[in-house]
Amino acid sequence: MASNGRPAPVDWVEGGYLFIVPPDNVANLERNVKRQRAEGCVVDLLMPQELKSKFPSMNVDDLGAGAHTPHDGWCDPNGLLWGFRRKAVELGAVYVKDRVVAAEMDPAKARAVVLASGERVAADAFVNAAGAWSGEVASMFGMKLPVTPMRRFEHYFTAGSPIERLPYVKDVARLAFRSEGKGFSGGVVDGNERRGFNFEVDHDYFERVVWPAVAHRFPAFEAAKCHRTWSGLYEQNELDGNPVIGRWSRVPNLYTVAGFSGHGMMHAPAAGRAIAELVVHGRYQTIDLGRLGYERVEAGEPYREEGIL
What we know:
The chain is an alpha+beta fold. It has 3 domains: 9-89, D-Amino Acid Oxidase, Chain A, domain 2 (2-Layer Sandwich), CATH 3.30.9.10; 96-146 and 240-299, FAD/NAD(P)-binding domain (3-Layer(bba) Sandwich), CATH 3.50.50.60; 148-237, D-Amino Acid Oxidase, subunit A, domain 2 (D-Amino Acid Oxidase, Chain A, domain 2), CATH 3.30.9.10. Helices cover 25% and strands 29% of the residues. The protein is built from 7 helices and 16 strands. The chain has helices at 26-38, 48-54, 77-90, 134-140, 205-217, 264-281, 295-299, and strands spanning 2-3, 6-7, 17-21, 44-46, 65-69, 100-106, 109-115, 120-122, 126-128, 147-158, 168-171, 175-180, 183-188, 225-237, 244-248, 251-258. Strands 4-5-3-11-12-13-10-14 form an 8-stranded mixed β-sheet, sandwiched between helices. A 3-stranded antiparallel β-sheet has the order 6-7-8, with no helix packed on it. A 3-stranded mixed β-sheet has the order 9-16-15, with helices on both faces.
């Protein structure tokens, strides 16, 4: 991805992902691995001793298996964001620095939005991609979108003992961390975090929550040192933790692409393409994302994931 010949500073690292589960989750993991392989992904299903052989510092005593995807990785989210933004501008998009405060509606059609500056923007189609603010934006159109802001922390820490470089390690208790430079970056998501636009940093969270989890899984972290903690917001879909993508039947020119619950950057390219297809062509052309539509919210029917690989 380049804009005017300038590559986006994405800083891609093919470090791999490793999703580990206890014995009672192995059957589900095996089903997920089978599905991923059927779609062409390279996935290694590793039993505890294979995990220990590949990652010698890992405590595998309470594990049933792990799924290792060696070609997965991570990148700089800010670099990716600005890469998309510059490319969009190059292709004709116009960005307006403002804030939506109201929407003008007909009974079955959105007509315009009003900005904090007082400017009125009329359009044929509106896309709500407001992230953690998408629930508030939806309410301006009369739509009840169960997406709320949920604070989470990211920590940069180092081990007290030598340890091998690690892929992005994730478990069912929402521990998630990876190698980063000479240390590690990650944390533990607290799904019970009080909802709201809270960016304050709890500097005791690492020692209280994260350190016990990483030290249990990798004893080399017994003497871990946290160097930095920062906070951000998940756009948490309270129904099922999956995004809402598609149009609203009551207001067909209002489109939603929100509620990614921590997976936004990973899903953004595909979700953006899907919404563009829906707006321009009236239907999905690449991947049918109908199952992620708002209809499941209206019906109160969660569509939960069975595991992340």
